[in-house]
Amino acid sequence: MKNDLKHLIRSLVDIDDTHLDNIVRYFKPRAVKRNTLLLSEGEICKEFYYVNKGCIRTYFISKQGQEKTRFVLLDNNIGTALASFIFQKPSIEIVATLEDTNLSAISHKDFYKLVDDIPEWAIFYRKILELAYTFQNRKIEDRVTLSAKQRYDKVLKETPFYVQRLSNKVLASYLDITQETLSRLKSR
Asked: Dihedral of the CA atoms 83, 86, 90, 96 (nearest 10)?
């Protein structure tokens, strides 16, 4: 698990072994069962996650009671409920596992200690924020400019493993379409 996390960090920043080893030691491994809530709405997000193997999703519940998936973290990915984590305010997001998941978590305190102490970690963090911003911006653009079919086709092309690993309910919520629409699109 630690080697995969090191590889992920090295894919975004040039960092020496000493600093990298120091960063990775702050991540604490955990095996988490499927359908475990890591963060409930209203709680303050105190951890940042690296998913070694498994699946985590971040989502909201709309006023109409519908789940709206913001992001899905699959194998070798990193993330959390960013707004709550950054500002240490109650989250409007929920973070939960969709599969049995092997993850590593770093506390908010340790995460920002590393930002202050290791310049490469600060650069990594900035790059993660830039990627998150770009991803969310593209997701909004797609929702506004693409039809449901075009959004589904884009997922098939760019992230086909979503179709394979996510339930229809979660995939439909990620695409911001109904399960019925998703079923029609899949049957074509």
From this structure: 70
Amino acid at 86: I
For domain 2-145, say whether CATH 3.30.1120.10 is its number. no
Which pLDDT tens digit goes with each residue over 46-77? 999 999 999 999 999 999 999 999 999 999 99
Q: Which two tokens stand for residue 115?
A: 């930002």
Q: Is 88 helix (H, G, I), strand (E, B) or coil?
A: coil
What distance in Å separates the CA atoms of residue 23 and residue 115, rounded to the nearest whole number? 10
Q: Identify the CA nearest to 71 among candidates 39, 32, 29, 33.
A: 39
The dihedral region occupied by 54, where left means phi > 0, alpha psi between -120 and 50, and beta the remainder, is left
Q: What are the domain boundaries of the chain?
A: 2-145
Whole-model pTM: value is 0.92
Cβ neighbors of 90 (< 8 A, separation 6 or more) are 41, 42, 43, 44, 84
